[in-house]
Amino acid sequence: DAMVIQNPRYQVTQFGKPVTLSCSQTLNHNVMYWYQQKSSQAPKLLFHYYDKDFNNEADTPDNFQSRRPNTSFCFLDIRSPGLGDAAMYLCATSRVAGDSPLHFGNGTRLTVT
Amino acid sequence: AQSVTQLGSHVSVSEGALVLLRCNYSSSVPPYLFWYVQYPNQGLQLLLKYTSAATLVKGINGFEAEFKKSETSFHLTKPSAHMSDAAEYFCAVSSTGTASKLTFGTGTRLQVTL
């Protein structure tokens, strides 16, 4: 089945220690997204890629970076995680067009100690 | 700017009862509207979407939603709740463009009791 896969499901990192979360897709979608979801809150868009074009949300902290080396893979890099960055990180994909639904992975739950 | 408001952060229904989860939207252009469901420690799964075709949209798991422009609403309903429907439900709005930049509501947690 075509899907969006996130690894790892659970990630523990130390305060200030860089961490990378990964996402892969077999849907061949042009657009890939990273959302941050804190406990009992709505997902918040951090950035998205339209093919190789990177689109950052205005309020996404500089601490968050992303890479998309090819169509299938996308990475979220947190350069210096703080306690406030503990959250579920959701990767999603879609076709091009505003009415295309997003297909989500199961997320990576990040704990910062 | 676009936004959605979900009324009621928690809704509790008995098994077999009607489920009604409310969502109102605000958009300066004709919106695309979605309902997603999220089970604990999982990603979001699409229930249904409205993209300006039929105003009554049927989705998976017996859910449906009706787009009412006059009321700027897109409420989610299911005639008979099942225990497996217990989850978090998110309404979301998107607009025309090359990417579905969804804006989510704050979510409604549905509890189903015996």
Topology of helices and strands:
The complex is a heterodimer of chains A (113) and B (114).
Chain A: E1 4-7, E2 10-13, E3 19-25, E4 31-37, E5 44-50, E6 53-56, E7 64-67, E8 73-78, E9 87-94, E10 103-104, E11 108-112
Parallel strand pairs in A: 2-11
Antiparallel strand pairs in A: 1-3, 3-8, 4-5, 4-9, 5-6, 7-8, 9-10, 9-11
Chain B: E1 3-7, E2 10-14, E3 19-26, E4 32-38, E5 44-50, E6 56-58, E7 64-68, E8 73-78, E9 87-94, E10 103-104, E11 108-113
Parallel strand pairs in B: 2-11
Antiparallel strand pairs in B: 1-3, 3-8, 4-5, 4-9, 6-7, 7-8, 9-10, 9-11
Explain what you see.
The complex is a heterodimer of chains A (113) and B (114). With 113 residues, chain A is mainly beta. In chain A, 0% of the residues lie in helices and 51% in strands. Chain A has no helices and eleven strands. In chain A, strands 2, 4, 5, 6, 9, 10 and 11 form a seven-stranded mixed sheet that branches. Chain A is globular. By secondary structure, chain B is mostly beta strands. In chain B, the strands form two sheets. In chain B, strands 2, 4, 5, 9, 10 and 11 form a six-stranded mixed sheet that branches. Chain B is globular and about 45 Å long. The N and C termini of chain B lie far apart (41 Å). The relative contact order of chain B is 0.33. Chain A binds chain B through residues 4, 6, 31, 33, 40-43, 45, 48, 50, 55, 88, 90, 92, 94, 96-107, 109, and chain B through 32, 34, 36, 41-46, 49, 51, 90, 94-102, 104-107.
- Into which percentage range does the β-strand content of chain B fall? over 45%
Q: Major sheet of chain A: size, sense and barrel closure? A: 7 strands, mixed
Largest interface: A-B, 29 and 25 residues
> Strand fraction band of chain A?
over 45%
The largest sheet of chain B is:
6 strands, mixed
Low-confidence stretches of chain B: none
Which bin fits the share of residues in helices of chain A?
Answer: under 10%
| Beginning-to-end CA distance, first to last residue of chain B | 41 Å
The termini of chain A sit apart by 36 Å
From the alpha carbons, calculate the radius of gyration of chain B and give it in angstroms.
Answer: 13 Å
The computed structural class of chain B is mainly beta
What level of helicity do the residues of chain B show? Answer: under 10%
* Cα shape of chain B: globular
Tally of contiguous helical segments of chain A:
0
Q: Spell the H/E element sequence of chain A.
A: EEEEEEEEEEE
Radius of gyration of chain A: 13 Å
